[in-house]
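We emphasize that the prediction below concerns an isolated chain of 325 residues; any contacts that depend on oligomerization or on bound cofactors are therefore not represented. The input was used exactly as deposited, without trimming of termini.
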Amino acid sequence: MKAIIPVAGAGIRLRPHTHTTPKPLLNVAGKPIIAHIIDELMDVGVDELILVIGHLGDKIRDFVEREYRIPAKFVVQESMEGIAHAIHLTRDYMDGSPVLIILGDTIFDTDLKAVVKAGKSALGVKEVEDARRFGVVETDGANIRRLVEKPEKPPSNLVLTGIYYIKESEQLFTAIGQLIEKGKRTKGEFQITDALQTVIDQGIEIGTFPVREWYDCGKPETLLESNRRLLERYARSFKGGEESIIVPPVHIHEDVGIFRSIVGPNVSIARGAKVVNSIITESIIGEEATVECAALSNSIIGPNAEIKGAFHSLNVGDSSSVHLE
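Result of the prediction step, given as a token string:
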């Protein structure tokens, strides 16, 4: 089974980090966002990945090829014209077999094995308080009747989560091709919801499946919240640290130096980082970063950044240097 992962977006709400690191490679609870996704896909029997890359796409390609042995193809989306457009670009690699489509910023908790085993097209859904920012789902019994993209007055609070299992992939690609040929855009983009609605209107049944947890990684504050929630589920112990106190839950790479510091709760620290004479809570520290004589909370520190003498909440990008006396 193939899986398509669109990861071409620039992630502008996560700048300055996404100036130098593509959003799917940002670290959450011990590993990049895209690693959370690929690990789930491999667990359900996906044997080929097709990634739609754009902004800093070479870094995504390098990571996937370095960290995974699963066959992967890469397609470049040069202009951001919507999810349906991204999927359309993969058409030459499809053979009409069922496909999983997972949006590249979607960390989730659901039983994908059961979805695939059921053998019926189905979309992952979850109830939210404010559905106006999402694709909204109306059901008729077990099947979807209507999909509406980001409506001002949502007909329900059941929304799409960016996880699609499509058995009738050939019909979906035909519907997407028709959208693009006709230039039919919604909210300025070619929407997968419009293509899926065409498939439904043709009489093909598409069901839903519940997504228990859905972790938003689109903004600094939601990235930190997702880090916290994932650490509650996947935290691991850390026995290192010299004259230091570790307060769980945390995820600290084994190749991290911690000296005379208090770290945690809800802290992720990536490979090669160093923490000296500091207190860190509710934060994400990138690879090879240094935090010294600082007290940080609700902070995101990019790879190779250096923080000294800071008593703040910081959002510091790659290779930065912040010295506060």
